[in-house]
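Hi support team,

I'm filing this because I wasn't sure whether my run with adenosine-5'-triphosphate finished correctly. The job status page said complete, but I'd like someone to confirm that the output block is well-formed before I use it downstream. Pasting the exact inputs I used:
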Amino acid sequence: MIRFENVTKSYAGGAVKAVDDLSLEIDGGKVFGFLGPNGAGKTTTIKMMTGILNPDAGKIWLEGIDLDRDPIEAKRLFGFVPDTFEMFERLTGLEYLNFLADLYRVGNAERKAHMDKYLPLYELESAIGQQIRSFSHGMKQKLQIIGSLIHQPRIWILDEPMVGLDPASMHALKQEMREYCESGKTVFFSTHVLDVAERLCDEIGIIRKGKLIAQGEPEALMKTDRAETLEDLFLNLTEKEA
Ligand SMILES: Nc1ncnc2c1ncn2[C@@H]1O[C@H](COP(=O)(O)OP(=O)(O)OP(=O)(O)O)[C@@H](O)[C@H]1O
Ligand SMILES: [Mg+2]
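And here is everything the job wrote out:
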């Protein structure tokens, strides 16, 4: 469960309002797709829900835990794949995964089972002993994805996770996202790939200029707007003048 209540964030001393009075509730057991044009406020929202940025106003709860009051407790609950690659480049892939497992206090048997499952799935077995600086963009992305799940978090947050993935890895990721929410966990991801969002998401939210302009099941939203596809709906909603 994720809850935002009247969350606002500005940059540059208030000159840029990146997120404007956002209220949003996402139940467990759902894949939630966060959509919006470039600069709409998706990454800013994600940075606030992961505690990287503090909101100027408003509150955020993860599984009922107030992120501002119990930040460490709240941070234990999620796994995060950012849209950047600020990784420890001199670590090997294996050292990186073990570092994360240590951080989240994951036992030896669980971390081994995790790697046995995910390294073949994302075809990283042969590279995992190499330093991260030798990895390609897609390989780094896959390592971040595997690392983000090492502690089997209740909430899985991903910022544009599909960028740079090859078709097999993209398929594996989509499947994992679907399966992940089955046990009541929540998946929250941002994307520009609307046909994937249409098929994958139980619910979507569309943000434009920092404001949430639509939220609901893709099918229902498309029907209300008489749109044939999520792309049509997105273009209808985001091209309207504020
Ligand atoms: N560090 C920053 N300093 C100043 N302005 C920023 C900063 N980060 C983001 N912004 C501004 O905040 C607004 C929202 O940016 P944000 O990165 O949240 O958008 P986004 O929806 O993730 O876009 P994209 O689809 O391009 O990733 C934009 O106007 C952007 O220029
Ligand atoms: Mg972004």
